[in-house]
Amino acid sequence: MKHRYLGNSGLAVSRVCLGTMTFGNQSWGCDESESKQIVDAYLDAGGNFIDTADLYAQTESEVILGKALEGKNRDDLVIASKGWFPMNESPNALGLSRKHMIEACEASLKRMKLDYLDLYQIHGPDPYTPIEETMGALNDLVSSGKVRYTGCSNLYGWQIVKANEAARNLGMDPFISGQYLYNLIRRDIETEILPACVDQGMGVLCWSPLASGLLTGKYRGAEIPDPGTRFQEMSEILNDRFIWQEALELVDLVCEIGEELGQSPVTVALSWLLKDHAVTSAIAGARSVEQLEPSLVSGEWDLPDEHYQRLTDKLPQKHGYPCDWMRIALVPNFSKTEYEPGRAQRFPPLA
Ligand SMILES: NC(=O)c1ccc[n+]([C@@H]2O[C@H](COP(=O)([O-])OP(=O)(O)OC[C@H]3O[C@@H](n4cnc5c(N)ncnc54)[C@H](OP(=O)(O)O)[C@@H]3O)[C@@H](O)[C@H]2O)c1
């Protein structure tokens, strides 16, 4: 399995991270025994990076992951978790307050029976807590040895920059990663968030890299997904998020390219994400070892340039304003000197 440094940090992580949202989920996930086999298969393939959250399966995912890690060489692994979602009805059991951040992190450590987390991520933004309070609490978690690095998830671009400014003012290290919905169908982050992460020296970790299973190609022509699948159990959210005519045509192309290259559509979809080095890792979700296998291949296998371009061009992105203004006003005026990638800021594709 190939590794990349996570953002500008010195932390080397596998380019396929193991997601654990399925662990212990009784509706569309897997039980403890299968979860442990998934962890073993991932580690056997050379992976070192595992992502969880207190939310997953109402904390059961962390409990199962902790058991799966027993007897493993913990220091060789990079374990990430997240806090932010409500843990009970109390008004303080959610969000990014100092109180909740410290409690949530300590509870995650206790559930997994770990002394420290390598990466602790805020799972979303808190509209009420000052970001200085949150970053101060994260800094204390780092200083006390409970956390090595911090990251964020699901923040707007401006919130990322604001949080990192607060961190720098406190004399602490800024976020090293952002965890975002990113796949061949949902490329929204290319407009603002991905450029913000590049600017801030943060790695990007992609969640739902297979569009919750759609990019496997298994729903082509099928009207009703099987019971127990994510698309059956969460159809209200997922149909809106991932299904429209052009997206289904894109899935056809992923399958066609998979056939041409002798690879699974799963491998093709994850490898498309990893072609851009602004992305550090794709977070693979699976509810069986069999499902995980083609994701692991993309930890090693690189998509050829030509196929990358065909996939990139298939679903044209509408970045809207100000990108359309940039195309007219910025590109002609700033193309008089030779383009210097190391110096120029990253903009969404403007061509
Ligand atoms: N930060 C956040 O807000 C956030 C949000 C969501 C997820 N995450 C993280 O990202 C990870 C991955 O997200 P995700 O689970 O949504 O990823 P995904 O890769 O888009 O979807 C995974 C699902 O696709 C199906 N699948 C995967 N491989 C398959 C194969 N080879 N054949 C057939 N079906 C296959 C399975 O669902 P079925 O069998 O049910 O079809 C599996 O549970 C999570 O575990 C979690 O760690 C983070």
Ligand names? NADP nicotinamide-adenine-dinucleotide phosphate
Mean pLDDT: 94
Query: What proportion strand?
Result: 5-15%
| Number of E-type strands | 10
Bulk shape:
globular
* Helical stretch tally: 13
- Listing every helix as H and every strand as E from the N terminus to the C terminus, the arrangement reads EEEHEHEHEHEHEHEHHHHEHHH
Q: Order of strands across the biggest sheet? A: 3-4-5-6-7-8-9-10
Q: How far apart are the termini?
A: 34 Å
Report the radius of gyration as a whole number of Å.
20 Å
Write up this protein.
Helix 5 (157-169) runs parallel beside helix 6, helix 9 crosses helix 10 (265-275) and helix 10 crosses helix 11 (289-297). The protein is built from 13 helices and ten strands. The strands form two sheets. The chain has an eight-stranded parallel beta barrel with strand order 3-4-5-6-7-8-9-10, surrounded by five helices. It has a two-stranded antiparallel ribbon with strand order 1-2. Helix 3 links the parallel strand 5 (78-83) and strand 6 (117-122). The chain has helices spanning 32-44, 60-69, 98-112, 131-143, 157-169, 193-199, 230-233, 235-242, 245-261, 265-275, 289-297, 305-314, 323-333, and strands at 3-5, 12-14, 16-19, 49-51, 78-83, 117-122, 147-153, 177-181, 203-207, 279-284. It is globular and about 50 Å long. The protein binds NADP nicotinamide-adenine-dinucleotide phosphate. NADP nicotinamide-adenine-dinucleotide phosphate binds at residues 19-22, 28, 51, 123, 153-154, 179, 207-213, 216, 218, 229-231, 266, 283-287, 291, 294.
